[in-house]
Amino acid sequence: MKALALLLLLACPAVAQDNSGLDRLETRDDLRGWEPVGRVDIDGGGFCTGALIASDLVLTAAHCVIDPGGVPVDAGRISFRAGLADGVALAEVKVLRTVAPDGFLSLAPAPPEQLALDVALMQLASPIPSSLAAPFTVARPGAGDEVSVVSYAAGREEALSWQRVCRVLGKQDGLIAVDCDVTFGSSGAPVLDRSGYRAKIVSIISAGYQDGGRTVAFGMELPGIVEDLKARLRAGRVTSEVAAASARPGVKRITVGGGSTTGNDTGARFVKP
Fold this sequence. Notes:
One of its GO terms (molecular function) is serine-type endopeptidase activity. The chain is mainly β. It has helices at about 1-10, 30, 110-115, 225-235; strands at about 20-25, 35-40, 45-55, 55-60, 80, 90-100, 120-125, 145-150, 160-170, 175-180, 190-195, 200-205, 205-210, 215-220, 240, 270.
């Protein structure tokens, strides 16, 4: 049944090409409202996108914190760079703990049951003040078909790109298909409903495919799995944790360039159809 659901999502017809283009967010004014979104850097192993849902909790994709062989990425290798743009971040914080769902396997291509589990939380070693980046809330998708995505990706990894409007192609069995302009490195990027006063995260990018210039990407409904992951954190049932002696408290503002992570062993799992 779930395999059929994914096939139905893949078969969704393309909508009219009325999606917006990408806006590169470079200045503090550009970033206003998007400060909670940042680059998730894995030392020696690529990058993903993540977003704050609490002052010390970053939401991203599970395959960003679990290697394809099933081995958790050492939390000590991961840092979160909020609002990174051309070497300058609003804040950079090391990750203290990661948690992913039981039963998640980092597969490519991923079956639908794994797409639904491709969610992780990263607890930061120190909270990022809300005066710098006010966290997003997590919600269920609305009834409309317009969403927005903010992400880093291959070829545009040094600054956030914002697609103001893209489309939901289908929803079924807790999975969501969108035609947003995302690619490798966009894993964990928040899919946002902007119909209210402030944008809410209704999904995150997990995987997808590109065909003839069209992108179909897949995410999942979030509230239930996010609450389960928070409960695992509270219970200490973590995927990876930095030893107490190695934790580095404090929030560092970045003022220099460099340190770009360009490996490709993490990032959205895009395949050819």
